[in-house]
Amino acid sequence: MILFNRGSSRQVGGFALSTMAWILCITSMGLPQWRVWYSKEPVISYPSVAFVGVWKACIYHHDNFSNIRVCYRYSYHDTFIPLDIRVSQCLMLTTSIFWLIGKVATVFALRNVYTGRQEESETYNAFGLSAILNIIASSFVFLVVLCNYFSIINKEGIAFPPSFHMPVYPHIQQIGIAMVVAFLAAILFLCSGVIFISYTFPLNIQVLPNI
Fold first, then answer.
1. How far apart are alpha carbons 20 and 32 in whole angstroms?
2. Which of 62, 46, 45, 43 has its CA nearest to residue 163?
3. What whole-number distance in Å separates Cα of residue 196 and Cα of residue 12?
4. Of 53, 122, 131, 181, which cross-links 32 as Cys (Cβ 3.0–4.6 Å)?
5. Vertex 134, ends 130 and 139: CA angle to 5°?
6. Radius of gyration of the chain (CA)
7. For the domain with range 2-191, which CATH number is right: 1.25.40.20, 3.30.200.20, 2.60.40.1220, 1.20.140.150?
8. Domain limits of the chain?
9. Residue 64's CB: how many other CB atoms inside 10 A?
10. Is the pTM of this model over 0.85?
11. Distance separating the N- and C-terminal Cα atoms of the chain
12. How far is it, in rounded angstroms, from Cα 187 to Cα 179?
């Protein structure tokens, strides 16, 4: 016999939203465009654009003939990294771990529902755990976005090493596309958490015969 429950379709949707949120979260982590810097330094004979991300910084030099892009990755041993970036790194990594644990809990709960197992408390607890972890993940990503946003509006600089050839303070700072992607990930994490926490145990389960 195959047991089928239509009432869990929302939780399947929450599972999909959570997966999309994680993909967007990972994508934003890999992008350097969290903060967009426009600078005009005396040591550079032409304007430059720099992208400052959570894990790396990239600088673009523009002249009349070519565009040169150079990227520099951060490590945990770099002392020049400001506190907000270090906090962002920790929060984004913790978000991925929470998502993975929540994913396992969701799979366990959905298996109980679709196989007709009547462990109501276990199913509730699994969906509840996944909901809590997704909501926490959402708050973490929101916090990372806010940290970078306040750094931009406060025009905070970063004392990069001289080898980076980047100014301490840019001429102009703007929000990058990576912050938008992370913001969308936070919303999807929150939506999936709300869906999981609203789960109600099905009263009727339809049984479909094998063909």
1. 20
2. 43
3. 9
4. 53
5. 150
6. 23
7. 1.20.140.150
8. 2-191
9. 5
10. no
11. 10
12. 12
